[in-house]
Amino acid sequence: MDAWADIGLEQLDGFDFGINSGWVPVGDGFGYQRRFETPNFVAIVFGVPAHTPGRETGIHFDVDEVLPDMIAAQDLVREKGYPSRSKDKETYKVWTRALTAQGKRFKQIIAQVRDESPEFDQLFSGWGGCSYAHGKTRPSPIIRGVAHRVAILNPSGLVELIWVMGGSIAKREKASGCND
């Protein structure tokens, strides 16, 4: 392809990224999803057409691994009736510490999935990631970031722009070893 303008995407001239495949329509054609499987994780990523309103919202991944400290901090805040931050600073110190640890764990899991799946990594660095087009060759794992565009090959065989909006990552179930 000589230029993005060749396929009617003039606004992308100068962006150096490829076209992603493997996306399937979901939700009555409103959006797309793609499944990535690694030895340890299964990730499902969601995207919506680039013309969809609200596309500037952040990317958010739900990860199925919640640390015990995070659960305890949530219970503590709930038991106290969600007190004011300014009036109960000690409770919110516990909350902030747990939230920070949880955020670090989420980022580690996303980084691990990126390491195990070159296709998943391409969404954020290079093939299909606008971050790459702006000079970030390996952007940091995104928990709350600006949604970015990805060029996909839709089921009709046409190139379409979507906004990657988020997804979920779950640990792959280990085989039970039963011979039933």
Features:
180 residues, 7-stranded mixed sheet, 4 helices, 26% strand, disordered C terminus
Provide an overview of this structure:
The chain has 180 residues and is α+β, with helices and mostly antiparallel strands. It has one domain (4-171). The protein is built from four helices and seven strands. Strands 1, 2, 3, 4, 5, 6 and 7 form a seven-stranded mixed sheet that branches. A hairpin with a 5-residue loop joins strand 6 (148-153) and strand 7 (159-171). The protein is elongated. The chain starts with 23 loop residues before the first strand and ends in a 9-residue tail after the last strand. Residues 1-7, 126-134, 137-146 and 175-180 have low confidence and may be disordered.
Helix-residue proportion: 25-40%
- Contiguous low-pLDDT stretches (5 residues minimum) are 1-7, 126-134, 137-146, 175-180
The dominant shape is elongated
Strand count = 7
- Could you tell me the radius of gyration in angstroms? 20 Å
User: End-to-end distance, in Å?
Assistant: 53 Å
Order of helices and strands: EEEEHHHHEEE
Overall tally of structural domains? 1
Strand content: 25-35%
Mean pLDDT: 71
Structural class determined from secondary elements: alpha+beta
Tally the helices: what do you get?
4
Q: Largest sheet at a glance?
A: 7 strands, mixed
